[in-house]
């Protein structure tokens, strides 16, 4: 019997966690819900950075050095666009352009964005279901000291420099969750929030009312991995963003974001001092090494998440080859 | 005083003639009307092969070996599209994709196609006005033994193999000529039809009623260069197409296509035997070498066209450094 796992994933942290889970003992039961909040039309083409990062990572096509984009890329198209006077602040490689051209054409044909994402993933050879929270456009908008910005302008163009005062997921209230996502959540034994930005990655997914209530109503075990280690993100602006929006920029701030949603928050061993405060918010805590520089680290962390699940849900039929990991005392869930 | 010249140009022959005229003694007075009949949406992008061939040729960016496309091209985007299952029968290079992406985005913004073409040409550094006959879509459609085909399918995909029974310029009757084109024709002293396909290149331009009547009503001297040499085209399917549509596939067939439009038809020295028959159609004939493999040949032919014009219009103030060319007896216009 396999475990049904739903991973909410955004950004590079989401892709790493997805990779770990895909290659874990429960990889076959994995479904991934990706973030489309940072989707954007660039040069008239529909770019979907988080979804592409997942597809490229999970099919070994990712540029491992950057953590995004395709490996062995060139940028002849972008250079030629620059010669046409176009502002090319967003790096798009020649092969990557094909993905955007294809996606844009399929959207123009009227196909659902989630069907297109699944089609592209399949063409790349991905076997794990890659789901979109919604087929509606729900762009993340950030109010900053430079005015309202779309996500890529904030993230890429201005390198996360602007001070954020508010985050909006435009149209989220009216957006419908995709049936595939709702079905996956309904079938889930375990829901995992990847170590992604809790506000603009996981938050953009949870902003879809149908997703939020499906997770609220799910009897699945729910855990998150903190993207903050010793007060800093591995990548991206989560720490700065937490601070700007009134959360503490540490594991506790992450716990506050997810309050009333989680059974368990997994934090880095460097953040043990927050355990009591997090437990006080009504969730369990587990400490382990959450950095995932290499494939081995990703799978190890994924296996540990499965261990935590099994400890909390001993009746559920997980495959058994996990005793060696379970025996590591520091990896146990603390109450 | 400069001469105002309007060149109707399509395909590689049109680009060669444009290059010759641009570098001739009257290059400053040149305007070019390009053919948009073979424009087509490919992978959701608006591709305008004839216009791009003109822009790329006249700005030294053309792939001289192929006669179309950009030099130093790569095809990473196209290869990646093929991996996505897309049928990539139309070669589009990485740099070339930028042109199509940019054009498509500008069209989406609502800009007139002729404004976009001029903008792209200017960005490439072209000084000569490159005009579109119309801002409307007037796709060339070919009825063949494989059914109705768009031009690129016939030309590129099926390599001009299908037998053509009819040619249609869809929507031409309702299409409006651009004001820039009408102004250029109204101001022209000399109108030249390039050695392009008389049916689908020049024919697609003349199919716009406003263009046709402006040329009919113009007092400019009108000449064409035959694209057929010794019964064959240098490039493209003009010979085959002439035959299929009931014309003879030689200089006389070209003259028939242009009957009542021309003052002078320039044919290749290899086709002198058609002179009498062509004159019988009510136009003058000049014989010369019309092959233009190199820049020097293009300029030489252009200068000869200007000579013919000056012989026929001795009052018009052409620059004077042409006596050496005029002295070549075989290059004189025969009546």
Short description:
In chain A, 38% of the residues lie in helices and 18% in strands.
Beta-strand fraction estimate of chain A: 15-25%
Counted beta strands of chain A: 15
CATH superfamily of chain A: CofD-like domains
Structural class of chain A: alpha/beta
At the fold tier of CATH, the topology name of chain A is Rossmann fold
Largest interface: A-B, 31 and 31 residues
Oligomer: homodimer
Q: Which geometry of chain A do the CA atoms define?
A: globular
Low-confidence spans of chain A: pLDDT under 50, at least 5 residues?
Answer: 321-331
Q: Can you tell me the CATH architecture of chain A?
A: 3-Layer(aba) Sandwich
Can you list the strand order of the major beta sheet of chain A?
5-2-1-9-10-13-14-15
Radius of gyration of chain A: 19 Å
Helix percent of chain A reads 25-40%
Overall pLDDT of chain A? 93
């Amino acid at each position: 019997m396999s475990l049904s796992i739903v991973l909410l994933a955004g950004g590079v942290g989401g892709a790493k966690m997805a990779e770990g889970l895909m290659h874990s003992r429960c990889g076959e039961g994995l479904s991934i819900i990706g973030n489309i909040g940072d989707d954007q039309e660039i040069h008239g083409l529909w770019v979907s950075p988080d979804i592409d990062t997942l597809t490229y990572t999970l099919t070994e096509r990712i540029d491992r050095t950057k953590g995004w984009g395709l490996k062995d890329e060139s940028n002849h198209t972008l250079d030629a666009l620059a010669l046409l006077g176009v502002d090319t602040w967003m790096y798009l490689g020649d092969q990557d352009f094909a993905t955007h051209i294809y996606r844009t054409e399929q959207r123009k044909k009227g196909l659902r964005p989630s069907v297109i994402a699944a089609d592209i993933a399949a063409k790349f050879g991905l076997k794990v279901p890659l789901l979109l929270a919604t087929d509606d456009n729900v762009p993340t908008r950030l109010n900053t000291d430079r005015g309202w910005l779309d996500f890529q302008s904030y993230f890429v163009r201005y390198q996360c420099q602007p001070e954020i005062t508010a985050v909006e997921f435009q149209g989220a209230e009216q957006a419908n969750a995709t049936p595939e996502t709702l079905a996956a959540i309904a079938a889930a034994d375990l829901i995992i929030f990847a170590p992604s930005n809790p506000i603009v990655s996981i938050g953009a997914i949870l902003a879809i009312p149908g997703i939020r209530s499906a997770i609220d109503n799910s009897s699945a075990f729910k855990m998150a991995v903190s993207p903050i280690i010793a007060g800093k993100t591995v990548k991206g602006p989560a720490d700065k963003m937490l601070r700007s929006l009134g959360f503490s920029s540490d594991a506790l701030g992450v716990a506050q974001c997810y309050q009333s949603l989680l059974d368990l928050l997994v934090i880095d061993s460097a953040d043990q001092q927050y355990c009591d405060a997090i437990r006080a918010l009504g969730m369990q805590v587990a400490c382990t090494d959450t950095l995932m520089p290499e494939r081995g680290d990703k799978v190890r962390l994924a296996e540990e998440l499965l261990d935590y699940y099994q400890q909390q849900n001993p009746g559920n039929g997980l495959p058994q080859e996990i005793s060696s990991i379970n025996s590591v005392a520091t990896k146990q869930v603390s109450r």
